[in-house]
Amino acid sequence: MSQGGFANDAGGTLEGTVISTLGKKGFEVVPYSKWVKKPDKFGNELLLRNVPFTTIYGHPGKTEFLIKSAQHDMEIRIECKWQQSSGSVDEKFPYLYLNCIEAMPEKNIIIIVEGGGYKQGALQWLKDAVAQQKYLGHNQGKNIRVMSLPEFIAWANRAFRK
Asked: Is-contact 52 34, C-beta < 8 A?
């Protein structure tokens, strides 16, 4: 398997775990493209996949998920980043961060970072950028969280108790 194929497979595992975690909490997994055409066809506890937005460059972009929960009064965009070996995911952290602040329309955003292969200091830079902007009030009113996969699962268990 090529390096790119391996990365896609590992990223798919991360996304599958998010789907499984939220599916067990009662969320219906629906492609955004189907939901947007007939939103009344679906319930009120949704995990939408491949959710579009316009990037800071003015180009079409997509994130993996959007939680839409009427029961919990939540709308949270979820971005998944997996990097198990050296590559370019960590070099995209500043671009991802600026898109979260300036381009993604949701107020609440979770970035799940997993794999451990990012450059030393990259994940800490992302966490510091989120914390510093929140502290300075330059985050456009956004609530951005950076989590590992185990932290996301723990968050979901607390947020969506039955």
From this structure: no
Of 158, 162, 159, the residue nearest 75 (C-alpha): 159
| Pairwise CA distance, residues 50 & 30, whole Å | 9
8 A C-beta contact, residue 142 and residue 100? yes
Residue 93's nearest CA partner among 127, 67, 68 is: 127
**DSSP per-residue codes, 38-97:** -GGGS-SEEEEEEEEEE-TTSSEEEEEEEEEETTTTEEEEEEEEE-SSSSSTGGGHHHHH
Topology (CATH) of 3-159 = Trna Endonuclease; Chain: A, domain 1 (3.40.1350)
Q: Structural domain boundaries of the chain?
A: 3-159
What are residue 59's DSSP bridge partners?
Answer: none
Q: What is the pTM of this model?
A: 0.88
As a whole number of angstroms, the distance between CA 63 and CA 96 comes to: 10
Q: Dump pLDDT digits (tens) for 127-161.
A: 999 988 765 556 668 899 999 999 999 999 999 98
